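Worked example 2:
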Amino acid sequence: MRIRARRGISPVIAVLIMVAAAISLGSFAYWYTISYAKASSQAASLIVDATAVASGTKSSLQVTFKNTGTTSITIERILVSHDGGSFWHSVDKDVAAGATYSVTVSSDEVPSLSFTPGRSYGLIVETSMGNVTSIALCVGG
C-alpha cells in the first residue's frame, strides 16, 4: 500500500493570502484608531461667569455660559442661592460648541431675590453632561 503525500497550497497563493490578511487587519486598525480619536476629541467644556447686582430694593443675577468644548451642551436649569433662600431657574437652552449664551434673573421675576454687595453666592448649573458649580460675586449697582 502506497501512501500519497498531500499537496498543500502553492507558495504564491500562501503569500497572497497573508498579504490580504495583513491589509485587512491594517485597514481595520486604521479605521478603529481614527474613529476612537474623533470620538474622544468631542469633549464638553463649559465656563460659567456670574455676577449678582444689588441696587436699592432691586436685585438681579447675570449668568453667561461659554461652551469651550467641541460638542454642544444643553443647559437645563440653574440653582441660585441668595439671601432670601434658593430657587431653580429653568433655562433649557442648547449651547453649540464655541457659542456663548447669557441669562438674567431679576427680582421682578423672583420677588424674594435679594443679594448683599460684597458677598458671594453659589450656583449649580445642571447640564446634559453633568452639574457645574460656580460662584457669583455681588456688586452694588
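The chain has two domains: 9-41, 46-140. Residues 11-41 form the longest helix (31 residues).
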